[in-house]
């Protein structure tokens, strides 16, 4: 009987590594990193955050996608959503012949065209229990690239549901990962979840738990969270026992702070002596997300004159990195190096908190005279796009880096 579920690849890493290295390597990134994450090109000092770009989970997902194409050259290969949130990587998936299955406005996938002879890639974010079960029933080959950090959160949420706790998830309710994570609570008949976007929304929950003055009534609460909670959610019943989790790419400090506020609310309501009966919190912060945020914080001890953050506009971890940088210095979030136009000398970028807002175009955006350029990238951004962005900025400045040769700086 043919094996139809794969989670550990196909043992073809050595075969696909030369292709992946050739497509995603950057000589300038390699050079700056090798010189202590800082180098001079003409009068521009380029500084790299000490953690940036592809994380282990993304590396693994990309490897598995390439291995899948290598393993099944004669089969139709589908991908549920996007492998990761990076436009360049997803274009490469299309160029390799992988067909994308996109959700409808309600986040539902149509698998009608998938047959038992096809191969389906599950993205690094994972898929909901319902989508997984539907694909299993089709009998197609499933290649699961779900990140290990995401699986860790799933186990916690499943455990909450098993023990009668509502999973309170810090995340974006429309994000693939949050939808998949929330679905884990539904493995149990009485499993419940509630998704909060940020501290402001979390405080609505905390005020309700603690019955603070001015808190929402039950109907207003249900209306506000109608799309962000499990069916039949009753705040009076389902907020008595709460376990906190998070979408792995959210701001780590905010996730921790939200957990702390929920705990305080539970103590106000039930007393500290019984807190363990009403509140749970496990470490579900993704280490890669934390490391990239920590690296930006470290860099901002001495902020560069300008910061470039590279990564998909729909990438949560990239957006959070950009938000952190804007608190310290002029910051441009570009989804791809191509947003930097070397002919016109302009940059297209995403303004702060503008998920559905058109890109802004800036002219005269590069500082005059010597300046420091800080660079970081989301966990879904390959090194070649990071390097290309740096080279484009240097080119606008009239600098052509001689890679492989020593940098000579005029005194």
Automatic annotation (TrEMBL):
This is 4-hydroxy-3-methylbut-2-enyl diphosphate reductase. Pfam families: LYTB (PF02401). Pathway: Isoprenoid biosynthesis; isopentenyl diphosphate biosynthesis via DXP pathway; isopentenyl diphosphate from 1-deoxy-D-xylulose 5-phosphate: step 6/6; Isoprenoid biosynthesis; dimethylallyl diphosphate biosynthesis; dimethylallyl diphosphate from (2E)-4-hydroxy-3-methylbutenyl diphosphate: step 1/1. The lineage of its organism: Bacteria, Pseudomonadati, Gemmatimonadota, Longimicrobiia, Gaopeijiales. Its cofactor is [4Fe-4S] cluster. The keyword Oxidoreductase applies. Keywords: 4Fe-4S, Iron, Iron-sulfur, Metal-binding, Oxidoreductase. Its EC number is 1.17.7.4. It comes from Gaopeijia maritima. GO terms for molecular function: 4-hydroxy-3-methylbut-2-enyl diphosphate reductase activity.
């Amino acid at each position: 009987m043919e094996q139809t579920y794969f989670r550990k690849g196909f043992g073809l890493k050595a075969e696909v590594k030369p292709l992946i290295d050739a497509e995603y390597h950057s000589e300038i990134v390699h050079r700056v990193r090798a010189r202590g994450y800082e180098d001079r090109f003409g009068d521009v000092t380029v500084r790299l955050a000490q953690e940036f770009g592809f994380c282990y989970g993304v590396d693994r997902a990309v490897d598995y996608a390439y291995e899948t194409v290598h393993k099944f050259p004669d089969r139709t290969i589908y991908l549920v959503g996007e492998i990761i949130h990076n436009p360049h990587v997803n274009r490469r998936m299309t160029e390799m012949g992988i067909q994308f299955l996109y959700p409808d406005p309600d986040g539902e996938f149509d698998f009608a065209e998938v047959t038992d002879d096809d191969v389906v890639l599950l993205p690094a974010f994972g898929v909901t229990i319902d989508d997984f079960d539907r694909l299993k029933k089709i009998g197609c080959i499933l290649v699961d690239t779900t990140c290990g950090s995401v699986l860790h959160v799933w186990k916690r949420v499943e455990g909450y549901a098993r023990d009668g706790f509502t999973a309170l998830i810090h995340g974006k309710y429309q994000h693939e990962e949050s939808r998949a994570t929330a679905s884990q609570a539904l493995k149990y008949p009485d499993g419940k979840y509630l998704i909060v976007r940020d501290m402001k929304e979390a405080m609505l929950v905390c005020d309700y738990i603690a019955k603070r003055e001015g808190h929402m009534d039950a109907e207003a609460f249900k209306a506000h969270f109608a799309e962000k909670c499990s069916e039949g959610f009753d705040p009076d019943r389902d907020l008595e026992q709460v376990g906190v989790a998070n979408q792995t790419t959210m701001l780590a400090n905010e996730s921790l702070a939200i957990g702390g506020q929920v705990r305080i609310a539970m103590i106000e309501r039930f007393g500290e002596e019984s807190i363990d009966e009403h509140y749970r919190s496990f470490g579900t912060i993704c280490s890669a997300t934390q490391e990239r945020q920590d690296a930006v914080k470290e860099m901002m001890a001495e902020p560069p004159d300008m910061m470039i953050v590279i990564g998909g506009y729909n990438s949560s971890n990239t957006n959070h990195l950009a938000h952190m940088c804007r608190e310290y210095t002029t910051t441009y979030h570009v989804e791809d190096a191509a947003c930097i136009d070397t002919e016109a000398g302009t940059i297209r970028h995403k303004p702060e908190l503008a998920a559905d807002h058109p890109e802004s175009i800036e002219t005269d955006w590069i500082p005059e005279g010597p300046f420091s350029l800080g660079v970081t990238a989301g966990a879904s951004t390959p090194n070649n796009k990071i390097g290309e962005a740096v080279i484009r900025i240097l080119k606008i400045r009239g600098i052509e880096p001689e890679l492989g040769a020593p940098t000579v700086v005029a005194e």
